[in-house]
Amino acid sequence: MSTMESLIGLVNRIQRACTMLGDYGGGDNAFSSLWEALPTVAVVGGQSSGKSSVLESIVGRDFLPRGSGIVTRRPLVLQLHKTGDGSKEYAEFLHLPRRKFTDFSLVRQEIQDETDRMTGKTKQISPVPIHLSIYSPNVVNLTLIDLPGLTKVAIDGQPESIVQDIEMMVRSYVEKPNSIILAISPANQDIATSDAIKLAREVDPTGERTFGVLTKLDLMDKGTDALDVLEGRSYRLQQPWVGIVNRSQADINKNIDMIVARRKEREYFATSPDYAHLASKMGSEYLAKLLSKHLESVIRAQIPSITSMINKSIDELESEMDHLGRPIGVDAGAQLYTILELCRAFDKIFKEHLDGGRPGGDRVYGVFDNQLPAAFRKLPLDRHLSLHNVRKIVSEADGYQPHLIAPEQGYRRLIEGSLKYFKGPAEATVDAVHFVLKELVRKSISETQELRRFPTLQAEIAAASNEALERFREESRKTVLRLVDMESSYLTVEFFRKLPQEVERLGNPGERSGTPGERGGNPGERGGNPGERGRGGNLAERSVSTAAPNVDRYSEGHFRRIGSNVSSYVGMVSDTLKNTIPKAVVYCQVREAKMSLLNFFYAQLGKKEGKQLGLMLDEDPALMERRQQCAKRLELYKAARDEIDSVSWAR
């Protein structure tokens, strides 16, 4: 799947989830509207502006209701999905998920019937959208929202307020900063009187969100053209104007195929003396591709802010859910038994997540296998062991008396300084596993069906679990820091004793030709006295004590060898910590979470009286309703977060 398909498909799936969960803008202002945060292409035009014909040209199918007056009385979210060449075209409605429409005349009828189901047979309008997905090899990946046509007068059967009602509905879509406005105007009318341009100018005065579309170019009076508009001289927009030639009423009556109509449109622009020079940037096919590309770029730019809004809303909703109340039990014994049973059900699901029966526990291994090694690779050891820093640290360690044989203190300071950097990744590993465990607690609570009726108890269990996890985290942090400190407190001398022995086996190029300084050889790679190699002595002495007498101990090569030796030693320690840190984390956090997550909570429950237990199972009708609303919206945001995460990983 391409990035464009995945991003536009992402918004499509979130829009469908929004509609199913009752979020389609407006409504309850107590919640942030995810629907309003999503980038959309809103199709705006006056009645008889050719709006329906433009949409049908983009789709390549007759599928929209036609007639006089206000035909579009509910927003139509039109989601186009490009399929492989030769595949069969079909349509699906969100409210009829198991039915595929291959006859597009039935699609038109279903739009009409679904509109009537919501608004009745009157000419009323409704803000609840209809979701229609069309799968075809003849479309581009694109999502459009067809809005009721702007009108100036009410017709029979409509309230006088219909004009304002339609404008308010359309305005609620186009005034969103993430909305792309497709303003459709007929070319055979003065652009200054266009309802769509007038509204677009009010909500998007700079014109950077507005695409202008001129329809009915072929119906203009002879001797006139629309070049001033199309070339941006009459009314300039940041986005381009696109000319469209729709089917005539005669073509519609004759059921002229839309693919044939597209070909005629291309021929019109290619052969027109007025528009031939613009032919490559005119027509419904070009418009669809232009909108698809622009929508994808807007979605890509808005993903971070949408994610931030979702996470903030989730935090707010979860915080509110934690404070909602529950029903009263009959007696203290029954209440205690119920609470313990609910806790055991939660604990079972939590263990299943860790042990692999449910997804999530594998993320702990992901921290060890990916995050920890990646953090080690990013440590600034190259900077710490740079030639300048090695010279500086060794010189400072020597003080007023330069080292005689090997810079013992310099080596120790370099190693200890390097190992301090490992504390950050060690603590980050502890924190990452802690957050995985917290998330598994959250998921386990939400997946424990029996707990859903008792939000107060959910909050108590979550709080107790998080308190326990905090204790485990603190113990784990102390342990991994001790591991790093152990490596600093006692260095492996044997590592440095082996250095000259390895050089003896490989041979010393410095002894074959020139001085070690001239050849850049390592003074630590010389044979030396076997007796000296066997003694404990200086940990660094073995790496440099056998150097030839004529080596300059303060040459650049000397300090490079020191840095290289320290780097090798730190690499060995790094390999050790990659193995020991996960062991410590699992022992202190994962194992403890499996064995004793709620032990402290159980001890506290035994001390509570019946009234206190009853409060944990208390429930209020008003709060229950509010909780249902929160849970509904929380479900939407979590689904949206999962959708965004899946696209992020795919990319």
From TrEMBL:
Residue ranges of domain GED in the record: 559-651
GO cellular component: cytoplasm; membrane; microtubule
Keywords, comma-separated and alphabetical: Cytoplasm, Cytoskeleton, GTP-binding, Hydrolase, Microtubule, Motor protein, Nucleotide-binding
Keyword Hydrolase tagged: yes
Subcellular location: Cytoplasm, Cytoskeleton
Protein name: Dynamin-related protein 1E-like isoform X2
GO molecular function: GTP binding; GTPase activity; microtubule binding
Composition skew (Gly residues), residue ranges: 517-531
Principal subcellular localisation of the protein: cytoplasm
Keyword Nucleotide-binding attached: yes
SMART domains per UniProt: DYNc, GED
Region listing for Disordered, in residue ranges: 504-547
Domain Dynamin-type G: 35-304
Substrates-to-products reaction catalysed: GTP + H2O = GDP + phosphate + H(+)
InterPro entries reported in the protein's UniProt record: Dynamin, Dynamin_GTPase, Dynamin_GTPase_CS, Dynamin_N, Dynamin_stalk, G_DYNAMIN_dom, GED, GED_dom
Organism of origin: Punica granatum (Pomegranate)
